[in-house]
Amino acid sequence: MLSSQEMSHDPRLPSPIASPAQRVVRVDSQPQTTAEDLGRSIVTGRYDIEVFPSEQEITQRYGVSRATARDAVKILAARRLILPRAGGRRAVVATQDQWPLFDQEILGWLLKAKGACRLRIELMQVRRSVEPAAAAMAAASALPVQRGAIEAALATLEGASGREEVRDAEFAFHAAILDASGNRFFQQIRSIVAATLELAPVEDAQPHLEARDQAAERLIADAIRNHDPARAQAAMAEVLDRLLSEAEAAAPAKRSMRYIPRYGPDA
Question: What residue ranges are annotated as transmembrane (predicted)?
């Protein structure tokens, strides 16, 4: 097995990625802090019933300068949460289908909003659609160094203890499989994996559940190591089917899955 140092220097591998705890990069600045609060208000639906504040109103509400308010608006516009208008007119909130939901910052805001059960279901559905195929592709064509990364991540997971350590190791294992798929678009859902782990109930990290999950993940890793795409796909699908069923069972009520819901007080 290749060392972590050798793997980190292989130019064929994707760039290193953050663990769930490092998922969102925070910038300690007034524009960023102001934009974060406004962004959280947008994703929780506050501005469904209120107009988005003008720069002057932001200045008064947050006690910041006009330049800070303007920069906060630019941050939100860059993330496509609001649509600025010419002539200094008040910006309008973008519709949900325009939001970049894979954006790590927006995911971070959603994680802090109410309606986490519903969010977890939607994110698990994304994982269920992608990760079995990624596991099959990894089994079929992963580089030796990528197979080594999967085995190393699993070894770390099997030796992990405590909720945070297990969560980070779980993330590293699934991220390594996404990387080994060779599909750049699959690799982009690593933030989704991190978010579902962040949303997992505390009891999901209990020892008896950890043992069950690690046994299932050993089956996935073995199938990838043995170049068995069908088995890798089936094993990953079984794991994610169970996680999705658990997320659905934990939700307070079932709703139509056709549209992205608001994660506000009524979600």
Answer: none
